[in-house]
């Protein structure tokens, strides 16, 4: 199999199909336009420069285009950069799809779907079970395809579902160690906590914020949806308000966007599990390409810290 | 007319019907129980001590009871305290109702109702008008009776409606000076912004927080209600999300309980008008009994500041 | 009438007299100098590039020069940029003055002057009236010409006077709704609150901070001036200290540059009115060129928020 | 078996052996001294009053004394209080030991010891294993007896060892779900992270801070100990510094007492696991005596929040 | 010589003339009033209780009265308290003055005066010298008598002058080590920095805040005075603004009451020297009665820290 | 003597030996590489551009190389920049050493060494003296050569020793004015407080952080060293813990990297003296090249303030 983009070292030649993640046109000091492209495959992305770009080139290599690129990786101020030598748009004979170049969750949509379904199936409280199943069915497709965020963690295809499955498995272990936890409530809270993202974000790929996402946010969106679901299903028990509270408070603090702090044990634990899974994902991805004895790049959402990879093994 | 409770000075005799706002039982050093009562009429409240209280007295003077009290006001560590000399429960012949002893808004429920109705009547955008009218009708009674808060500002009978009317009048003046403002949107936001309090709080008198109020809060409650109202009325325009945003963001900052900051001009202005009316109410009440040349007590929600009343007049 | 600078869209040709707001010289990779100019008319400003600039061109197009420019607007990384095709300095025959290219308050200096004079005329407290009139006369000319700030809000010719007039009108409405306010004190506080800027800033156009402005700030400057005015006028009443306090505390919080928080009701209201008028000005200007259904650029002094312009109308 | 102290309701008679947790002498208004005692058994503690206490009684009932008390539970301002009717010191015939009246971990010292030993036994990295085993042997006795803190969480006999065992079990589950974690490092960090408390605190019961504890703190103490252990064992690998870093950074943030934030993945996860186990312990204890449909008391270290116990079950 | 108040240990008898620093009337559970007095001599103060106080006693022992008291020191909840056995007002024959019972600076007013005068005498810059001398002469008497604060540090008779002299001596040493410092400017800044306190505070003894002190604060007051002094002396050099800046910025940060941060080297150093002298004073006084091997009480303005006195000597 | 680098004004010709502090390779818009060099001598550093750099030039002018450069200083966006006309590597005949081009402390290593030795010699407490002498001997060489920091203050050769000597002299003056201070403890704390930097940093020149420095930090490193020294010397007195506390707490606050705040008087004073000496160093260096009547550049560690140099002299 071919070496992927991020497996190349400085000085190596690249010849790959890549997706244009973004494209900016500049005017150089000789008056001629040039293109700054961010090119990606599923291993990551790199900045690339196309000098003396013609107007037709500027139009050809826009965001979302698949291109075949030959060039060389060099080091620019400590970051890797790709100097383009040859570039062309892909054509049907190349047999490359956007999906081949996007990062994806390490498990398939089917696996995600069947794991979540199993967790719902095992619930004992019918009110919690019915609301959860109802909303998952309503948003089944985007739930399996959307990322969990536009950046920072799980920002890839099926990231949302993968994040939920990881949290469910972690929650199951936690609930075994601390048996006072209400498993149905905790699992339902996990399944629903970020489901509002399917309305907050514009799509599964290159997601941006919708108007509703900007003005209300995924927390308020899904809390409203839980209310509507309960009404449609004719459910009036305290489970409705408590489930809404779990979702409402899952950012943990007011200044992080939850209008209420957790006031129920399972809400507090949901917040902690969300936090732990997101951090594990960020750390694993940041350290993936770091060699033992070196530091990662600074990770902005982790207080801009660099992390060290020790030289010893256990 | 009789002097009201807070019009008495230190050293004066009191003989009034008063409402027991709260009651605590203590055991004194001689082993006998005593009662600490907070007694109020519509002018305010005072701490009172009933020494050597018998068990029947402890039972008789509980929260919510109307009593006739004779005693003397004295000064205890800088605060006024009432030393009870005689006390008895009121009886039907006294012809005193709880309503006579509660602080009320300075305008009647009818005035509030007709002013708000007029503002709704003049709206031109039918979507905004219909949602606002629908929700006001649904919660008409409690809207006219509830306080705007349990403490700090407008914490009296009809405080909610009175606060809304004051804000509407202020908003009308502001909109005349800054004509780019969307009046319908601003007025609707004002009418709805605190309406969730009729579910968040337990009642019009001696209000505490309901379970739903604690776990969701009045902002989330009314945002959900706007969504349901739009669905019931078959309204799908952008007005729904924008109106929800106005209510959602009216606390101005995440750390003050809004999960989104204002992102629409009228949302920002709604927040500022709410703030100004609440502060005017706090300041007027805090300075009411202060003499020229003296400072008020510290006002906790105003950063614990004391305010000075100048000696000159204009 | 000609289209103004900011009314041009990407791709359109520009041929206008413009003012050089600032000019930077760079050396391009071919070793030749180029100029980055910020060019403005009263509708706003734009970045422009002049490639291969000769030494005489570098000298000709310095800050404060009026130039005639032909070029084309294009989009550079999401911001508009002007590519200069032809440029020359204006000459007397062009009959263009700097004043024609600067943004100005929407009302004239005469209107500002007569409105403020009327507010002073109606004051009833002679001490407040005399101090206010004395200081306004002393700094009459710069008061009518200076901006209210170097950036963020009212940063245009006559911005200071216009800001004061808007605040006075707003204060008048507020005082009608809350009659306990001392109108003379509030109006005098508004007229004087930013008057120190005529010493803090270097002039009416392209203002920078003076040494005194940097080391003392406009608040301390005008508080000192009030003290001197009172002494010259032989006024000794409490009005002097109270008026100084209003000005001193009008930034509202210590960390925003007021050495005392407001401790007088009118001081608190002055702070709130200042805030509301400044925000209205920022919002109206930021949203002026935004189309319905789109977001404004981020507004730094409003917590770096973008504001949305709804698609519906009332 | 007898009802324990905290199982009594208001109005019930108490007749129990209790430990004097603290004792304060007051002088009542009749000039006679009285005693305020905090009395405890393993179920919790209660405030009690002994009126008209003689000098010999004041001396008899000091902190650490076991007493037999008869009295009645009543409600004082919302908290339970014990009115003492009869009290005497315990004597040898009563056959009561301090240990019988102290709260203990729910698992025995032997279980703690064997579980921790097993985790150490399974380590594969010899440097990590040897340092951990060395320090655990050195402080074996106090490790099994000390509390994990003087208040807030695990503040009971064997609390330290119990906290470590809970964290180890949780870490094991986490490491199974996220296999990139270095288990030896994580487990060693958990075993050592709070071991400095055996020097920071004065003892297993009624612990206070030692001089060394106050001036250096348990983090610095154990980091020094790891350094010394490595030197004594002749270990020089990177494991020493990395292990010191895990302990050093386990409070997560500088303002929480760690002079470095976590910069190694296992350090970050150690911090999160510590946090989760501490919060579960606080929540379970706070909610233990709360009835469904009610709120707990405010929990200070959890931002002073009250937690609600739902009425439904799963 | 007699033992002073604070030299008494728990259990000892006291028989001293003391000053009533404050007096509160309480009503005990037997219905009789009692007095809580804070009594002081120059060594410090203590809380005392007078039970069953008659109305004439309540009137007799008010704030500012000198009394002769016999009683016993006992320990109440860890603090020393005085139980009064006998008390009477002092009479002329006792020959005791308030001044005998107040804490004073360790050096006399004459020494303070001559030291400060010497520092002014040695100044070389005539503008700085004349302004400083002018203001010191204007407020000579209160400068020598006032405290430097109402609490926290130098809160005793002549505390202001003593604080200034200590700072001058420290500044002299600093200026010798860092010769780039402008000595005249630094010394003048020190002499004037707190001089506004003679207007901010009500007097030398039992000082409270004046209206002007509350509304403007000592910083603004003295900055105004410097401006007036310069005007009266006909001084127009940059020294005036720079000296005002030093005083204005000497609290170091906006949130500590300086409307500008230091922007001149000597201003920054003045802030640091003020800080160091205040802290030394607080620490020396807090540790004065602490025994080696023990901790002081918590010192509120030092982040509520306790300080340890080591057991060893050098 | 030749003019040094920073003594050149814009427009002047430069012909000097300079050290390459750092070097970045860029690719210009004509496709050719260029070099951005930071060049320094002992007077400071400047950015320089070498256009059309060949591959051999890129290799020749790397960090740490000494070069001879001819060029011209010009102004680029308000900062000075050097346009390189001629450049070559230095050769042995040039007789230039790296040491000639590095900034150094104004006193020699010998002076530093003898001053510190004298302070240790005069200590009276043998435990403190022996630990201090032991550690100074152990790290004698790097102590005399290392900088005190990598940036902000004393970031030059022998900066660490020079900073310590300045602090010792300041501490001596302070101790004379406040005789209650324990001089041995304070002096020892000063000598040791930053000694951990000889392990935290990689070397005396172009220092970066070591792994141990990153993961533990200089505070923890030297606290461990004090513990080891005491053990090796067989010292067990309280001096060990107290000395460790002084070093541990010398950053003053938890959020600045001290895991404990100062709890001993000398610890607090050590923190203040460290702060004062660091700020004096920053201010003197920032103001060195500023002309009277102008402001310095913004100084990041001083809250990003600019400092003004007055026009008058004393």
Automatic annotation (TrEMBL), chains A, B, C, D, E, F:
Domain annotation HD: ranges: 163-279
Protein's name in the database: 3'-5' exoribonuclease YhaM
Organism: Siminovitchia fortis
A GO MF term: nucleic acid binding
InterPro entries reported in the protein's UniProt record: HD/PDEase_dom, HD_domain, NA-bd_OB-fold, NA-bd_OB_tRNA, YhaM_exoribonuc/phosphodiest
Xref: SMART domains: HDc
UniProt key word DNA damage: no
Pfam families: HD (PF01966), tRNA_anti-codon (PF01336)
GO BP, sorted A to Z: rRNA 3'-end processing
Alphabetized Gene3D superfamilies for the sequence: Hypothetical protein af1432, Nucleic acid-binding proteins
Key words, A-Z: Exonuclease, Hydrolase, Nuclease
Taxonomy of the source species: Bacteria, Bacillati, Bacillota, Bacilli, Bacillales
The keyword Ligase appears for this protein: no
CDD domains named among the record's database cross-references: HDc, YhaM_OBF_like
